[in-house]
Amino acid sequence: MLRRARARWRVVADASRLPVAEGSATAVVIGDAPLFAGEVTRVLADGGVVVWSNALGADAPHHVPVDTVVRALADADGREWDAVTAEAGWGLWAVLRRA
To answer: Is the dihedral of CA 21, 23, 25, 31 positive or negative?
Structure first.
């Protein structure tokens, strides 16, 4: 996906210490990985989105329910968050924004 993406800038990195400036990411995509909420909220620009995905849904090794993700992001930056969620087959995903 990264090779095919038209985006000029993209990063694959250790999620606990992203090499990205504060408030500079318009999107953070997390697929089947642990959530580092403090780091996500640090790099996310105002108006940016977080895409949270579990290919195996609740059976994924790193599954975290979306309501838990919302609370973790809110706790990390002190702001409210909204989520739109969907499921297909056994997978699930959410697009999250600051409220």
So the answer is: positive
- For the cut 70, the answer to whether the pLDDT of residue 76 exceeds it is yes
pTM above 0.90, yes or no: no
- The conformation of residue 22, written as its DSSP 8-state character, comes to T
CATH 3.40.50.1000 fits 25-98, yes or no: no
Question: Distance between the two ends of the chain, CA-based, in angstroms?
Answer: 29
Domain range summary for the chain, segments of one domain joined by +: 25-98
pLDDT mean over 44-60: 87
**Percent composition of the chain: helix, strand, coil (DSSP 3-state, to 5):** 20, 35, 45
**35 phi, psi to nearest 5 deg:** -95, 125
